[in-house]
Amino acid sequence: xxxxxxxxxxxxxxxxxxxxxxxxxxxxxxxxxxxxxxxxxxxxxxxxxxxxxxxxxxxxxxxxxxxxxxxxxxxxxxxxxxxxxxxxxxxxxxxxxxxxxxxxxxxxxxxxxxxxxxxxxxxxxxxxxxxxxxxxxxxxxxxxxxxxxxxxxxxxxxxxxxxxxxxxxxxxxxxxxxxxxxxxxxxxxxxxxxxxxxxxxxxxxxxxxxxxxxxxxxxxxxxxxxxxxxxxxxxxxxxxxxxxxxxxxxxxx
Length: 253
Description:
By secondary structure, this protein is mainly alpha-helical. The protein contains 10 helices and 2 strands.
């Protein structure tokens, strides 16, 4: 029980500090509060705090300097491909920009992966894709469709045979998870989305790389537009360009 509780505290501290760094509460180049202050602020022991800081350092967010303390690293050092960093950015005011970047990443990776899968997929890959698609059909238009949808795209990336795509797949999966959970609320249902998924599956099975690439491009663009429409309908419209604040109040990026 003590070990489980420690893991929970450890995760909470990572989330808390990570979100504060990403949101700018702890600006780049600034030191974090000292150990005692941090422990009191977060209600944890020094060992839990130290372990959390090691994880954040691996994500490129902080840098521990001997006898000087722990400092927030500049934004360009952050690992933007880290799923936690991605999630934290999506909870900030730059969430719309992050969503755009995620769809740009998907357009770079998934159509090529689908094309490669058409030439390299094996029988087991076809079975995984087909099973995931059937589970999507059975799930209907609620949150139960998210996991089989992830399985479908995961199977395509794995079938591409490209180890680098497989590594990027974890980031793409985070992007997919976010967009899928928003897209579940599509008032038009999942009929057209399922048709697009079926077109991808058929093209891969037919070993037609060009058709698989095009079908995936169409699906990603449809998903992007669906997410934009749903976010707008929920009042999450794209903000207008902000007016430049006075220089003395402007925070360093």
